[in-house]
Amino acid sequence: MKHLSLLIKPASSLCNMRCRYCFYADVGARRSIASYGLMEAGTARSVIDNTFKDLDRGDEVTFAFQGGEPSLAGLRWFEDFTAHVSRTGRGNSVHYAFQTNGLLLDRDWAAFFKKNNFLVGLSLDGPKGLHDKNRLDSEGGGSWERVMEAKRFLDEDRVDYNILCVLTNELAGEAEKIWGFILREKINYIQFIPCLEGLPESPFSGGAGGVRGLRPPRFAQFYSRLFSLWLRELEGGHYVSVKLFDDTANYFFKGMVSSCGIDGRCSPHFVVEADGGVYPCDFYVLDSYKAGNLGCQRPEEIFDSPVTRAFLGEGKTGEFPAGPCGECGYWGLCRGGCKRMRKTMYHGEGNFCGYRAFLDRRLTQLGEALERFF
Predict the structure, then answer these.
(1) Which residues lie across from 353 on neighbouring strands?
(2) Which residues are marked as active site?
(3) Sign of torsion, CA 86 87 89 92?
């Protein structure tokens, strides 16, 4: 049985916010076409049709939507998309996901998500003071109140969602404040996304406003402190899903890869821009990485393209590397982690690996917690 995953950008890099650390603004600025606009209805139908041509009865497919801001395509666009999937994908298991800044969400959106079993990722950087420092609307104002209203709509309709929080250097020093917010707002699922530096030769020093990327020592400090708070809550009978803890437990103790790059290898993802163009990774939606077009090609053709094969083969080696990875006892499993995250999570100045420091401090306790409580 196959499981195909597509990350579709129906509004390309268009957005109604001006977040100071937006990595996709960095990506768009490096392309010959910064934004492909809104995906046309005919392109969406062709993407769906070609997707199902490579699936047999019983196969699974996940359509995930991201941006930019996908809600800018409009609710009607998504109603038409899901309707065409229902007509085309009979006999297949279909899953939906949707990552949003929340500014356009209302009760109609929440009802749609619930009806179609969408998993929503809502971007929220904790309490108002932290959130509004970087997550600005198109006029430069704060967005926290509107995002919290979107969260309320999702809660009221019992939509499955998780919180996506960008982990900046500043926020990484506020583990207690973030944890208190998680508990007050009854957040059960949260993923912290490291704030990235700009790509090499980028016009940005780290996001659209020059917010410096998270550094490995801060990564280690944050997660080590958060783990203590998380474990205390777990011992009291309350489990909160923190994605890094879940992914680390799955990989080191269950042998399951639940996060792309945790084993040092890139997984074959199809990132679909608004013109149907396909790229192998959301961090590399660049002209040189374009592998095909799902509006006129089948997934198998694109997967077998030289661009995709070269991307998936980058960095594979059977030898121990030079530097801190070559001296690390976790190398056999980690193998350097995600290549786009390495400067942020793993080793930066002074060859300090934040992930290694976290594992040294907390991996044994994580295993013990897994055995005791799950």
Answers:
(1) 347
(2) 282
(3) positive
* DSSP character string of 275-341: TSEEES-GGG-SGGG--EETTTS-HHHHHTSHHHHHHHHTT--SSPPSSGGGG-TTHHHHTT--TTT
Cβ 259 vs Cβ 192: under 8 Å: no
- pLDDT per residue as tens digits for the range 123-168: 999 999 999 999 999 999 999 999 999 999 999 999 999 999 999 9
Rounded mean pLDDT of 339-365? Answer: 86
Question: What is the Cα Rg of the chain in Å?
Answer: 20
Distance CA 198, CA 210 (A): 9
Residue that the structure tokens 């208190």 belong to: 180
CA distance 51 to 158: 30
SS3 content of the chain, % helix, strand, coil (to 5): 45, 15, 40
What are the φ and ψ backbone dihedral angles of 185, each rounded to 5 degrees? -90, 10
Strand partners, 97: 64, 119
- Spatial distance between the Cα atoms of 185 and 181, rounded to a whole number of angstroms: 6
CA proximity to 105, closest of 153, 139, 161, 160? 153
List helix spans (H) across 185-305: 216-235, 243-254, 299-303
Q: What is the mean predicted confidence (pLDDT) over 69-74?
A: 98
Question: Is the distance from CB of 132 to CB of 170 less than 8 angstroms?
Answer: no
Largest CA distance in the chain: 56
Distance, CA of 165 to CA of 217 (rounded, Å): 19
- CA 162 from centroid of its chain's CA atoms: 11
What span, in angstroms and rounded, lies between the C-alpha atoms of 98 and 120? 5
Average pLDDT over residues 23-47: 93
Torsion of CA 70, 71, 75, 76, to 10 degrees: -50
CA–CA gap between residue 279 and residue 307 (Å, rounded)? 9
User: Where is pLDDT greater, at 283 or 124?
Assistant: 124
Structure tokens at 135: 């997550």
pTM of the model: 0.93
